[in-house]
């Protein structure tokens, strides 16, 4: 028996000798690292074979990595899923893996020609400026490459990664359709999580956060008003995301010609708006309105513009000039967004006046990555490094100065201007115009959210909305295929309708 077993082992080793030897050497290395460097090194060596297997799988199923990126990005801020590494690391690694695959497998990825557009130009300008910020030593602390890279990666480089990934991998009508559905399903899960928080309470991790960091901003009016944050970092992040997401889904639903998708997106949009109100984020109302107003312009349709405008005016009148719904605290909080005497808004104005006094001597800003961990208390710019910005635009203003924030605004205008031009003048298909208009509206909505709250560069907003705007730029390339894809779905829809009618008539006989 031992001889038979020995022969089988010898035969297997002969056929798979290289792999067996490699695994055996990795095993010995892992044991050696455990004995000399400790458990973390042992784990790192042990997971190496799985990383290799993942890389092989990533080359074989490229879109699987893309969907994994989208999924992980959406839940990075969830309180019950803490990571032992910086939250941005998995996101950035997957983006780099996707770009590396596209470069290595360039013959089978014939979509690089699509990236040459206005959005790339704007991003290169912004990333170039943020790269020059490495020389910014306004605080007189010396050049801190680590702090600079941390700030530049989150403020600029990730935008370029996102643009390239979406421009390359959303290459077919089927990919675009799956993207919208996947986004809707994730958003509906966030709505469900809000409902769960309201009706069944917070998880242990969420409770700890609410009782510590979130207490002053999320438990209001003596504990009678709770601002819900779903799977996001905080209520402001969730509220602005929900507003921008609802803009996209409502427009997708109105312009879609496939009935099951039309109803699905409209229902998703309505439920997401409900979740938005539970966040108590007042800026979200303006985000929602701004996104829809942009689509009214882009639609070039009286049939869409007139009812949209009437509905917007109707709800604006209700919120501003009436007290309807005041029995609900969330609605009362939303309504306070239209009052100029709101206390929290006044605090923001006071803070910004202080910032203006200090930023005069820092035209390039205090530097990317500069914060309370880098700037000592005796430094002239300590106040700027530690004061709560309460807005993404203010945060960028402080780090890159008046020059930087001006350049950032210009590049954002170039991006959205180029995308709107495509929707207005290049696209012919009505449903594709709706998709482009919805993504443009969502981008404007989240930008407005970034003006009012520090949410623009937060997860999952960057990937969703900058990625969405990237899609607008590739829509003219896929329009011919989209028309065929839509015609096929419409034919299937009509066939189902015909069969249903035949069945109904047969049942009457």
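Q: What amino acid sequence fits the structure above?
A:
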């Amino acid at each position: 028996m031992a001889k038979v077993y020995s022969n089988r082992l010898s035969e297997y080793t002969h056929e798979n000798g290289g792999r067996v030897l490699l695994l055996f050497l990795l095993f010995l290395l892992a044991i050696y690292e455990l004995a000399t460097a400790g458990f973390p090194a042992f784990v790192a060596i042990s997971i190496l074979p799985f990383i290799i297997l993942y890389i092989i799988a990533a080359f074989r199923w490229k879109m699987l990595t893309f969907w994994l990126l989208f999924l992980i990005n959406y839940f990075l801020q969830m309180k019950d899923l803490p990571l032992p590494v910086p939250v941005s690391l998995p996101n950035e690694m997957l983006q780099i893996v996707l770009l590396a695959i596209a470069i290595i497998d360039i013959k089978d990825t014939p979509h690089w020609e699509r990236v040459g557009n206005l959005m790339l130009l704007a991003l290169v300008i912004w990333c170039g400026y943020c790269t020059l910020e490495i020389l910014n030593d306004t605080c007189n602390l010396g050049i801190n490459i680590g702090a600079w890279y941390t700030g530049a990666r989150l403020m600029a480089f990730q935008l370029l990664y996102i643009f390239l990934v979406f421009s390359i991998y959303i290459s077919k009508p089927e990919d675009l359709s799956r993207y919208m559905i996947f986004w809707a399903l994730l958003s509906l899960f966030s709505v469900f999580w809000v409902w769960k928080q309201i009706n069944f309470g917070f998880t242990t991790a969420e409770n700890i956060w609410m009782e510590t960091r979130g207490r002053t901003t999320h438990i209001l009016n003596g504990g009678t008003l709770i601002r819900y944050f779903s799977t996001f970092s905080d209520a402001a992040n969730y509220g602005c995301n929900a507003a921008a997401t609802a803009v996209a889904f409502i427009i997708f639903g109105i312009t879609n010609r496939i009935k099951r998708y039309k109803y699905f997106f409209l229902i998703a949009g309505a439920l997401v708006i409900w979740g938005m109100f539970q966040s108590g984020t007042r800026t979200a109302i303006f985000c929602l309105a701004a996104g829809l107003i942009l689509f009214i312009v882009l639609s070039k349709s009286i049939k869409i513009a007139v009812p949209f405008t009437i509905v917007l005016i109707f709800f604006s009148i209700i919120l501003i000039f009436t007290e309807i719904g005041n029995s609900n605290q969330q609605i009362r909080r939303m309504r306070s967004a239209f009052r100029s005497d709101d206390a929290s808004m006044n605090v923001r104005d006071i803070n910004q006046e202080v910032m203006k006094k200090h930023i005069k001597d820092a035209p390039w800003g205090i530097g990317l990555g500069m914060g309370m961990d880098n700037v000592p208390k005796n430094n002239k710019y300590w106040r700027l490094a530690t004061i709560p910005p309460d807005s993404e635009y203010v945060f960028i203003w402080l780090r890159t100065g008046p020059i930087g924030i001006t350049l950032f605004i210009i590049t954002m205008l170039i991006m959205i201007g180029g995308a709107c031009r495509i929707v207005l003048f290049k696209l012919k298909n009505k449903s594709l115009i709706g998709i482009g208009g919805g993504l443009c509206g969502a981008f404007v909505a989240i930008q407005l959210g970034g003006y009012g709250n520090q949410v623009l560069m937060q997860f999952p907003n960057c990937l969703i909305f900058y990625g969405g705007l990237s899609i607008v730029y590739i829509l003219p390339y896929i329009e011919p295929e989209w028309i065929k894809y839509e015609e096929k779905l419409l034919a299937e829809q009509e066939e189902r309708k015909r069969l249903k009618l035949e069945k109904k008539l047969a049942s009457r006989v």
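Q: And what stands out in the fold?
A: Residues 12-23 have pLDDT under 50 and may be disordered.
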